[in-house]
Predict the 3D structure of the following.
Amino acid sequence: MASPSQENNNKLLIRVSELFKSLQKKLYSKVGNIVEKAKEVAKDDPRRIIHSLKVGLALTLVSLFYYFKPLYDGFGVNAMWAVLTVVVVFEFSVGATLGKGINRMLATLTGGFLAVGAHRIATLSGRTGEPIFIAIFVFVIASTVTFMRFFPSLKTRCDYGLSIFILTFSLISVSGYRDNEVLHMAHQRVSTIIIGTCTAIIVCISICPVWVGEELHNLVSSNMEKLGNFLEAFGCEYFQLFECGKSDHDNSFLHGYKSVLDSKNSEETMANLARWEPGHGGFKFGHPWKQYLKIGTLTRQCAYKIESLQCQLKYSKIQTSLGLQRKIQETCVKVSTESGKALKELALTTKNMTQSKSSNANIANLIKAVENLKTLLRISRWEEAIPLEIIPLATIASILMEVVKCIENISEVVHELAFTAHFKCVDATVSPEQSCLFNQGTIQPIATMNIEKHEDIALAE
């Protein structure tokens, strides 16, 4: 028969065993969750794996300064700046890496040069006045450059460089007070930073580069396409015309426009980074990236109008209508559908970097549909209709006409982009002379015409 002490020991062992098994299960669960999360992140964008390998390769290359004695003897402990530079500079996209790298190199060069000059001037005052002059130089330079960081243009493109300039100037000028070989130290530090930056840039560009300009290009065209999908489906969904081929249960496409409303910061960041990138693919050096910001701004304005349509779709759907209303409904559906086609054609023009007559034809059809709607609203006998049914219908017609104005503005900016970026003309029926006149602005696109010029045509019909 077991003694009480043995029973207690057995119970303790059982508890420890159960605790160990519980901890083991939790550990396996945590590891499993981490693995699943890693798979999800990698599957979401496989380029992240390539980027991680590229960073590892760049760090391995600059680490050779420590592995090989001849290289280490040339730079000494300052070789660590090459490693630090790769870690700080290497970004996911080429534009971000170039922006940070060029900022860091220029800021280090200018900051080091001014720091050496400040040190030389301070030494002329003797050992007593040297720290005073160095302190004055550091105060003036740091205060001035910090204030410059508040300038919008400098903050957008050079904020990182200005920070590095302050850091470099302060480190070299202050350390020069105790180290007489300040010029040699500045030379080593600048050299290693340039080597680290160049290594990061070369690896980033030469191995599976990620071009942020291309990302911006696709984002802007995708946003226009999302709005086009909504407008194409809106008329049928609102008036419950199921013969158009849309089901009331399959309406996920009606919410795709919402991502357009929050795209401002992404577009501005991408446009700023894209300016650093060299020419690649169809994007030449000096590509008009600012035009994409204009298109993005107009697209968001259109998206806000579409949000009003979405509210009407949600809260004021019409169930019945008179014969007069049915006629107006058909016109509204026509305007909505043509608006969607025009936006999708503009998105295709931007995405493929081509220009064709089809986009102008869609805008012409859209203007014609709007004029028919205006004429119908003007000549209709509203006293025969029920007011509660007329108010939502008139609201939809008004919003649709505002949407058409936005689309016209988008079309103008897209044509400006096509002219500035020299998009290819894909219409075989367009002669070289006509294409040249179009690109020079002699032949105006249909989107730039004033709607009022078509009133006579619409009334005649």
Q: What stands out?
A: The radius of gyration is 33 Å. The longest helix spans residues 4-44.
